[in-house]
Write a structure and sequence with these properties.
This protein is an all-alpha fold and about 50 residues long. It has helices at about 5-25, 35-50.
């Protein structure tokens, strides 16, 4: 990693981390799925049950 040169670098790295955290990180408590994938499948299942 290199030092941040300014606020734009900090903002970019923060967005990169949030993307990794929600879309690529595997979470053991939810079946080794990324949180965004788990949420999408949970929402789809809830929609089917409500119909």
């Amino acid at each position: 990693q290199r030092p941040w040169q300014g606020l734009n670098d900090v903002e970019y790295e923060t967005l990169e981390y949030v993307d990794w955290f929600n879309h690529r990180r595997l979470h053991g408590e939810i079946g080794m799925l990324p949180p965004a994938e788990f949420e999408a499948s949970h929402q789809a299942a809830s929609t089917v049950m409500a119909a």
